[in-house]
Amino acid sequence: MRPTWDMYFLEVMHALQKRATCDRGQCACVIVKDNQILCSGYVGSPSGLPHCDDVGHLIRPSYEADGTLHDHCVRTIHAEQNAICQAAKRGISLDGATIYVKMTPCRTCCMLLIAAGIKHIIAEFKYHSGSESEEILAQAGITLRFINEEVLTYPTQSPDLQTGIQ
């Protein structure tokens, strides 16, 4: 059976996740326009810097807007950030494009996606701290559609989020 465009781009995203070098989220994304892939990205350290898979996570405490404390790996850049950088390196405009992502982009990624001209976001899952992102995207007039309404959590996330250490 021939997959829909959404299913096709999600399958490509799933293949890209295998290249991620931080096992906490193993996120990837694909940016498309007119059903053509413009660029892609996955979570990992910038070129030339050590990867989590090689040297371990660099965990820092991170506070959500509601004051909730979470542990966050800061060794890597997010898949969306990586894809935007890849497009910039190759002179590819993302204006009016659609991005397929594993989960709701974080606040910073949302701001970058807005600035890059992304118009549609298709997320496979919701993210536990995605409500602020959803509000920002709505304010910017960017459509956000979820394939699953399930909230994604990391399988390797520390059970004691109050410590900020994994």
Name its key features.
disordered C terminus, two-stranded antiparallel sheet, globular, six-stranded mixed β-sheet, 5 helices, single chain, 8 strands, alpha/beta
What does this structure look like?
The protein is α/β, with parallel strands linked by helices and 166 residues long. Helix 5 (131-140) links the parallel strand 6 (120-127) and strand 7 (143-146). The strands form two sheets. Strands 1, 2, 5, 6, 7 and 8 form a six-stranded mixed β-sheet that branches. The model is unreliable at 158-166 (pLDDT under 50). It has helices at 5-17, 52-55, 79-90, 107-116, 131-140, and strands spanning 28-33, 36-42, 59-63, 69-73, 98-103, 120-127, 143-146, 151-152. Helix 4 runs parallel beside helix 5 (131-140). The chain is built from five helices and eight strands.
Write the layout of secondary structure elements.
Elements: H1 5-17, E1 28-33, E2 36-42, H2 52-55, E3 59-63, E4 69-73, H3 79-90, E5 98-103, H4 107-116, E6 120-127, H5 131-140, E7 143-146, E8 151-152
